[in-house]
From TrEMBL:
<protein>
    <recommendedName>
        <fullName>Ferritin-like metal-binding protein YciE</fullName>
    </recommendedName>
</protein>
Length: 181
């Protein structure tokens, strides 16, 4: 099967399942999926550089869980308003930085299915980036294929109202070396 078609179908499946979840379930999933992004190189430094806020992974997780998101939303909006891609001093973020920034934006946005789907597809896109630019494309391709099934397993768990650990992604990718490429 063509990988583009497979991922398109997977994204549609994610959207369908996420649309059936409650707002509370969607909110509960965000910190779990963010566990993946926390493992990317320089997560906190990227946020500080581009959004101009100092955060820790633990504080961000707690704020997502407790719904304390306004300060993040304000900081992101301010950064977006001040960004001038045509300025002489504009610095294009690296791909990993973009994945982190998009994940933060989706994690702190109002809880809805589209933001959660974007978090999940961002994981796939990040693994695809590593596959395309690392010296071990087969390794990253295998992780990406496993990730598709893992995401559906997570959503199935949520649909059946079983508890899900917020550290599920941190545990899953704990031994993966996400070095800067």
């Amino acid at each position: 099967m063509d990988i583009v078609k497979q991922i398109k179908q997977h994204t549609e499946n994610l959207q369908t399942v996420c649309d059936r979840l409650t707002a509370a379930q969607l909110k509960d999933l965000k910190p779990a999926v963010m566990g993946f992004y926390y493992q990317l190189p320089g997560f906190e430094a990227v946020i500080k550089k581009y959004i101009k806020i100092s955060i820790t992974k633990d504080q961000l997780t707690a704020d997502i869980v407790n719904g304390n998101l306004e300060s993040y939303q304000t900081a992101i909006a301010k950064t977006n308003a001040e960004m001038d891609e045509y300025a002489d001093d504009y610095e294009e973020p690296e791909a990993l930085d973009i994945f982190i920034l998009e994940a933060l934006d989706n994690a702190v946005a109002d809880t809805d299915a589209a933001n959660l789907v974007s978090l999940f597809t961002g994981v796939i896109n990040t693994l695809d980036y590593y596959e395309n630019f690392s010296d071990e494309p087969g390794y990253w391709n295998n992780l990406q294929e496993q990730e598709l099934a893992f995401q559906l397993e997570i959503l199935s768990t949520m649909e059946s109202n079983k508890p899900l650990s917020t550290s599920v992604y941190q545990e899953r990718y704990n031994n993966v070396d996400f070095t800067a490429l």
